[in-house]
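Sequence and structure are no longer studied apart. As an example, we show below a sequence and the tokens encoding its fold:
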Amino acid sequence: MAEHEEVRVLVVDDNADEAQSLAALLELSGYVVRVAMAATQALEQMATFGPQCVMVDIDMPGMTGLELAAALRQSHAEDLVIIAVTGWGREDQMLSSDFEHFDYCLRKPVDPRRLERLLPSVGGAAPA
């Protein structure tokens, strides 16, 4: 098996069960994962964890996922994959300008097969 560089994913969701379930799924696939329960925690972890991918819940109290994505895109314009993870709206609605700061959008519950197709391209690496 070829060696792959480490791929770090930050999961941001105010629902602890959702966040932990997604984190467990990612870890089983070989990714290094951290969880943030709020946008402010996510911003703090950006400097210390340095993820290549951030998976963001849209509907969070305080700073929403849309606002967080805009802030992340401003500070990490090209080197970060940002994935919206939401339970509201249809997928075609997720193509609106509200989602302009996201690279991909996934509906909850996240389909593990779809996630598996997206993540190997993060950072040009596959999980170890």
About this structure: The first strand starts at residue 8 and ends at 12. The mean pLDDT is 84. The radius of gyration is 13 Å.
